[in-house]
Amino acid sequence: MSNVKPANERQVKRINFRLDQTEYTKLKLSAETYGLTVSNYAKKLALNSKLQQPYFDHTATKELLLELSRQGTNLNQVARQLNQQPEMPQTAQLLAALQATREEYRKLWQQLQK
């Protein structure tokens, strides 16, 4: 009986990646726990991982980040104007609203960068 696999079952693609010593040691210990080689363990992890579909595609995310950046610039310009005119009666309220808006932008920015 021959040990040769049919052409469609041969593993012909190779993937290399680098680890530091700590990462390699952790991966090796995990592989040994399951009685696998480091390569087979990494392969099983990669093939069995549950990746989530991004909410936005890459192009849409880039466009959203660009728009957020533009709006953030506009907010900073408004803040600068408000800070230069502290004698206006609504300045304190406007600055508070501006700060709340900045915080919302920061949260949205962080979510989009995940």
From TrEMBL:
InterPro entries: NikA-like (IPR053842). It comes from the Bacteria. This is Plasmid mobilization relaxosome protein MobC. It comes from Lactiplantibacillus pentosus.
